Amino acid sequence: MYRHAAFLTCLASVPLVIGIVLGDGERPLHEFVTLGLTGMLVLAKLMLLWGWHAPAKTLVVVSLLPLTLALVSYVLPEYWVPLSRWDDMSRGLVEGLTLEAWRPALLTTLSLILLAILIVTRTRSTLGGPLLLLMTALLLGVQGLLGKAGPDTQLLRSAAGPWPTLAMATLLAGLGMAALPGWRAHATALRRALVPSLILVLAVLLLWHHQKAVTERELHVTVETEARQLGDHLTREIQDHLAAVERFANVWTLFDTSPSQAEWSRQAALYHRDFRYLLNIAFVDPDSRLTRIYPFNEINHRALGARLFDAQPAGREAVSRALFEQRIGRTDVIMLLQGVPGIIHYLPIVLDEQRTLGAVAMVISLPMLAETLFSEVDKQHISLMLTQGDRVLASQIPETRLGPWQHEVQLDVAGAPLGLRVQPSHSRLLQQLPRHPVVSLVIGLTLAYLLYLVLHGYTRLARQHRKVHSANTELRREIRTRSQLQQEVEWLARHDDLTQLPNRRLFMETLEANAAQRPLSVLICDVDHFKRINDHQGHLVGDRYLDQLGRIGCEIIQSYGGLFARYGGEEFVACLPLTDPVQAREIAEALRQHLQDAELRHHDGSVLTASIGVVTLVDGPLDVATLMQAADDALYRAKAEGRNRVRAAPPLTTIEKV
Questions:
Q1: Cα gap 50→53, rounded to integer Å
Q2: Helices 129-147 and 162-184 sit at what angle, rounded to 10 degrees?
Q3: Which residue among 106, 119, 372, 462 is buried most deeply as judged by most CB within 10 Å?
């Protein structure tokens, strides 16, 4: 896997070299910036593979500086930091440089930032490596889809060219190849954290694309509306001027003679001042000669006295309509006597149905009309073209890069249809474009990353909790086992393993525990001729007889509230608190009789019997040795007198140590 990852990382440099070699002077600067930043990340990954950790991290930090600046410029709204301010900062670094010239595409910027984080964190799953890798893959996939539309159609540049995208994808494959073995060990935990986070990432990308389309469509409508309003405003202004000139022409119907130059200038000045795109307002006599003109400047003076039928054939029909038919005449776009294109309106001055004093010529200069129109918009950020069909009459094109949208509106210039093409600059559109789709994208991807960290941390804690719980369960089981063993050890320390009766130790402890009880009786029971059992019938039979004797004695003694114990060998003892001498002897006799009735026999058929010695401490302090000695003496008297009998020592009141 290491060799494969190193190979893919080296392979990522191939598209970078091809992209640089194939680049020419027309390739935009931001493409070279993207190629350079991608190359820095490829080099940083190779340094990490070679063990040069410090230089690699330094290279990643250096590449993150312009990427972070670019991302901030995408996110911050225009009213916080205007685009002009970003351009000023860019020009502070390189003369003539603008933000859009060097800034990588939006999704490319995010992809490079995620790649840098993957390299620094070494794609560790605890730091979100799997999600960052899949997020980068999705961003590169979206770039591939958006790149098919072409960069010229994108308002906000979102995707890089094919060579940087291919280089980033190859580097990403190398990072994934190196990290995959480490992720397999925690595949289940990673799936639990990845699936919800990845669903959120997909939802964020869909939301961003939808918001991007909506905001660009709304901005497109806004720009189109502004262009239409500009055309409507100009059309209304020309119509208002035509109506005013008609009133101006009607004034001269009150006179029978042609106006003097002074009279003409005085009246025409009022109208010319309000409509700056009028080249002049002239009086045409019935012979089509220009006899009066305003303003009387050098360019208009050359046209004074000209006979329009001869000097301007293109407008002959319009002049004839006004002079002979007493109707308003309008030319198409023609070349004026002043040498510029324009439109002339001829308004007849009618004296009566037969006589016409002349006509008022309203000369609209299209260059001046365009200049009037251009003065109402931002010349640095809006391109305007005044057209007639495919012919461009006048234009204003800023030096800045134009946006992808061009709107054409129809103008009615006093009856002459003209076209007005409006195309805002790219920077102006970016200034008007809302930032909330980009903000939603960045915040959504950040929330998805945080969700992964929370889910992955919770999964790890749950796994650790299960391990701790399992260890605690095992520990409790071990403690219970050890407690049981301890209890068994303690039980074995106080009981006889053969008969399950209390042993000598527990008997002595019980005797000491009842030291204050009076009367206190003790029985010592010894099986008669027990050695014959072991010698002739074997130890197994002897053990069985001892066990049966123990059950008989335990049943009888415990019914009187006493303790029956094996003292050693074939000897058994009993402790009977609050039992007087008479009752103690009766109990001993019952024990002897029950044993005899048990039909336990020797090899010769004789019944197994026992001898019992009894002693009772009636008063005085307890001396165990003296008490046991007295009982033992009574036992030996029973044996000496023929066995199979009970003998009692005299009751003790004050024990004298032997």
A1: 8
A2: 160
A3: 106
